[in-house]
Amino acid sequence: MAAKDDLLQAAETGDTEAASAALDTGALPDVGDRYGVTALLRAAGRGDQAMVDLLLARGAQVDKGSAQDNTPLMLAAARGHREVVARLLRAGANPAHRNKWHFTARDWAQWSAGSSDVVAMLDAAHGR
After folding, report:
1. What is the CATH number for 26?
2. Structural domain tally of the chain?
3. Is the pTM of this model over 0.85?
4. How confident is the model at residue 115 (pLDDT cuts 50, 70, 90)?
């Protein structure tokens, strides 16, 4: 399996040791699958703060989007992962970014039950 595949698999399973090893053997932190889904997108969608921290520390772009231009912030917001949303915002994620359907992370957060605190966090980050 190539280092790229190792990194994406490690992000999917939350194996930070394997992710670090894949990065050490040449996997690029922003490499994506055929849909443009990167390790950071996978980790953010899972709410995996340790993996998010590792990937950001190793150079992953905080706003790198998928083929549909969905960002890690959007996926974390959609699933109500408050701590990951906060971490991505601290790393400079753009809360005003829109995907190809013109949705923002706030729009995604509104669809998630119990994510009113995430919506409020995104509003504050966006200056609302």
Report:
1. 1.25.40.20
2. 1
3. yes
4. confident
